[in-house]
Write a structure and sequence with these properties.
about 90 residues; mainly beta; Jelly Rolls; 5-stranded antiparallel β-sheet; 3-stranded antiparallel β-sheet
Length: about 90
């Protein structure tokens, strides 16, 4: 399966993850990550993050979000391209 995003690895160990505005929303599946992650939203409007058993929350530029390893979550497509900076802990 091809990922619905592209990654750009940075020198500080973080990476920029970009979700194109033209992706098929069905590609945004529930999943779990192998590591804890801290996420900063760099660009994108109306995109949402939904954690297991919680209502979706809008991802806002400038805010930080924390996802525990092995916690189910998914993205919900918004408008435009979503760009995130991700640090794995």
């Amino acid at each position: 399966m091809v990922n619905p995003y592209t990654d750009q690895h940075l020198d500080d160990g973080a990476f920029i993850r970009t979700f194109d505005e033209n992706l098929n929303e069905q590609e945004l599946i529930w999943h779990r990550d192998k590591n804890n992650r801290e996420i900063a939203v760099l660009a994108g409007g109306g995109w949402q993050l939904q954690m297991d058993n919680k209502l979706p929350q809008e991802l806002k530029a400038g805010n930080l979000y924390y996802i525990n390893k092995e916690e189910y979550h998914r993205l919900i497509k918004g408008n435009g391209t979503l760009k995130l900076k991700i640090w794995e802990k």
